[in-house]
C-alpha cells in the first residue's frame, strides 16, 4: 500500500494538478481500495472539525502582516539599512540578502513571501554592482527559507496544530537554529568570496554616522518582532491574538513611513486571501488523506516495516532524515509536512525523542526542500524576480547553502539542546 500511494502521489503531481486536489484524490482512492469502511460519509464533518480551530486563525493574520510590510515599502527600507552594515564583508551585498531575509522572517512567517520580498528589492542591484548571478540569487533563495524557522512561523503553527504541541515552545525552539542558519549562510558566503573574490562583487563601506542613521529604519521591525513574540512568551496573548496585534502594529509602521493607501490595503488583503486559501485547502485535504490512511492501517504497516529493519533510535532518525530529503525533491513543502506528520511523529516520539526537537529538525529538512530542484518553490520565486538568465543559475547558487542546512541537521541530532535550551530555560523546567 505504501508504494501504491507514493506512486499515485508522484504521478498526480507530475500532471501539474494542484496539491490540495491531489491529496483529496488520494484520500478518495485509499477510501475506495484500501479502507474497510466507507469513510467518504464523514468528509463534511472532518472538513468542519479541521478548519474550525482558533489556532489556524493566526495564519491569515501573519500572512496579512507580511503583505502589509512588503507593499508599504518597509522591506525596501530594511534592505537599504542592512546594506550599510554588512556590505563591507567579503561578498558585499550578498550578506544584505541574508540579513534582510532574517529580519523579514521575524515578521512574515512565510518562506515564499520572504524570498519574493528580498528578491524584488535586491535583484536590481545584482547586475548594476557586478555580482555573480548564481551566488547572489542562491543566497536570496536560501535566506528566504528562514521564514519558516524564525518565529513567527506559519509552518510551526501548522506543526503545533497537527501534533498538539505548544506553539510558543516551538517558536522558542526555532529561534537559535534560525539565527545559527543565517550566520552559517553568511559564513559560507565569506569563505566562497575569499576563495573566489570575483563572485562577491563590490565591497562597500559607509560613514559611521550614516550607518547609525540607518538603524532608525530597523527599529520599527525590531519593535514589532519584540511585541509579537514577547506577548506570546509572556503569556499575555495567544499566537492568534499576537498576530492580530502585529497586523495593527504593521499598519501603524506603514502609516509612519507614508506607505498607507487604499491600493496597499486592497492588494494586501487580496494576497492574504490567495495564500490562506491555498494553505487551508492543503491542510483540510491532508487531514482527509491522513484519516483514510490511518483507517486503512498504513501506520501499522509502516511501524511493522521499520520494526523489521531493527533500527536503533538514532538509526530511525537517520532513515527519517533520508525520507524527507528524498520526498523534498518532489513534494511541495507544506504538503510534505501535513501528509507525513501524523505518520512519522508518533513513530519518532515512541522512540523517546522530544516532539519539539523533532519539529525543528523537520523544519530544517523542509527548508532544504525549498531550494532543491525540481520542486523547490524558492528557486522559482527568485527566478521569477530575476526576469532573465537561466533557472540552473539559481539552482547552482543554492547548493552551498544546502550544505549549511545538512550541517545544521547533523548538529541538531548530535546536540538537541540547540533547539531545546531556550524552551527549557524560559519555561522554568
How would you explain this protein's 3D organization?
This protein is mostly helical. It has one domain (52-426). It is built from 20 helices and no strands. The chain has helices at residues 2-14, 19-33, 43-51, 58-71, 74-86, 93-108, 111-128, 133-144, 154-163, 167-195, 208-233, 239-256, 262-296, 298-309, 313-328, 333-350, 355-370, 377-386, 391-414, 417-426. It starts with a helix and ends with a helix. InterPro entries: DctM (IPR010656), TRAP_DctM (IPR004681). The chain crosses the membrane at residues 12-34, 54-74, 135-158, 170-195, 215-236, 242-266, 278-298, 310-327, 334-350, 356-382, 394-422. It is found in: Cell inner membrane. It is a multi-pass membrane protein. Residues 9-417 form the TRAP C4-dicarboxylate transport system permease DctM subunit domain.
Number of strands: 0
Mean pLDDT: 82
Biggest pleated sheet: none
Share of β-strand residues = under 5%
The total tally of domains equals 1
> Would you tell me the structural class of the helices and strands?
mainly alpha
Report how far the terminal alpha carbons are from each other.
43 Å
Shape field: globular
Q: With helices defined by DSSP (H or I, 4 residues minimum), what is the helix count?
A: 20
Q: Give the SSE string.
A: HHHHHHHHHHHHHHHHHHHH
Helix content: over 70%
Low-confidence stretches: none
Report Rg. Answer: 21 Å
Question: Would you summarize the structure shown here?
Answer:
With 429 residues, the protein is mainly α.
Amino acid at each position: 500500500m505504501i508504494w501504491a500511494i507514493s506512486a499515485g502521489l508522484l504521478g498526480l503531481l507530475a500532471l501539474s494538478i494542484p496539491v490540495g486536489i491531489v491529496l483529496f484524490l488520494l484520500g478518495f482512492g485509499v477510501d475506495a481500495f484500501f479502507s474497510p469502511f466507507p469513510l467518504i460519509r464523514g468528509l463534511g464533518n472532518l472538513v468542519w472539525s479541521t478548519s474550525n480551530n482558533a489556532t489556524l486563525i493566526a495564519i491569515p493574520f501573519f500572512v496579512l502582516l507580511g503583505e502589509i510590510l512588503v507593499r508599504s515599502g518597509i522591506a525596501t527600507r530594511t534592505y537599504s539599512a542592512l546594506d550599510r552594515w554588512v556590505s563591507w564583508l567579503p561578498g558585499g551585498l550578498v550578506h544584505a540578502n541574508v540579513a534582510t531575509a532574517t529580519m523579514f522572517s521575524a515578521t512574515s512567517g512565510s518562506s515564499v513571501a520572504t524570498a519574493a520580498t528580498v528578491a524584488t528589492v535586491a535583484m536590481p542591484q545584482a547586475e548594476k554592482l557586478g555580482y555573480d548571478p548564481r551566488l547572489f540569487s542562491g543566497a536570496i533563495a536560501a535566506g528566504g527559507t528562514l521564514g519558516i524557522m524564525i518565529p513567527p512561523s506559519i509552518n510551526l503553527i501548522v506543526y503545533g496544530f497537527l501534533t498538539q504541541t505548544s506553539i510558543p515552545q516551538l517558536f522558542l525552539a526555532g529561534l537559535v537554529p534560525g539565527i545559527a542558519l543565517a550566520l552559517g549562510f553568511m559564513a559560507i558566503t565569506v569563505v566562497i568570496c575569499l576563495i573566489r573574490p570575483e563572485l562577491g562583487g563590490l565591497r562597500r563601506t559607509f560613514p559611521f554616522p550614516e550607518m547609525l542613521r540607518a538603524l532608525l529604519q530597523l527599529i520599527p521591525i525590531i519593535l514589532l518582532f519584540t511585541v509579537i513574540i514577547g506577548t506570546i512568551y509572556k503569556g499575555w496573548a495567544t499566537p492568534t491574538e499576537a498576530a492580530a496585534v502585529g497586523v495593527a502594529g504593521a499598519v501603524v509602521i506603514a502609516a509612519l513611513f507614508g506607505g498607507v493607501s487604499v491600493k496597499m490595503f486592497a492588494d494586501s488583503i487580496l494576497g492574504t486571501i490567495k495564500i490562506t486559501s491555498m494553505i487551508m485547502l492543503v491542510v483540510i485535504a491532508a487531514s482527509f488523506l491522513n484519516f483514510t490512511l490511518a483507517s486503512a492501517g498504513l501506520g501499522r504497516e509502516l511501524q511493522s516495516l521499520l520494526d523489521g529493519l531493527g533500527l536503533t533510535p538514532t538509526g530511525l532518525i537517520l532513515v527519517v532524515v533520508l525520507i524527507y530529503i528524498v520526498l523534498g525533491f518532489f513534494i511541495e513543502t507544506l504538503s510534505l509536512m501535513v501528509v507525513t506528520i501524523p505518520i512519522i511523529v508518533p513513530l519518532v516520539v515512541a522512540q523517546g525523542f522530544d516532539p519539539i526537537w523533532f519539529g525543528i529538525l523537520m523544519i530544517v529538512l523542509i527548508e532544504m526542500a525549498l531550494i532543491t530542484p525540481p520542486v523547490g518553490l524558492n528557486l522559482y520565486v527568485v527566478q521569477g524576480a530575476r526576469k532573465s538568465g537561466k533557472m540552473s543559475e539559481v539552482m547552482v547558487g543554492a547548493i552551498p547553502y544546502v550544505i549549511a542546512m545538512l550541517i545544521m541537521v547533523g548538529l541538531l541530532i548530535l546536540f538537541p539542546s540547540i533547539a531545546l535550551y531556550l524552551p527549557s530555560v524560559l519555561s522554568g523546567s
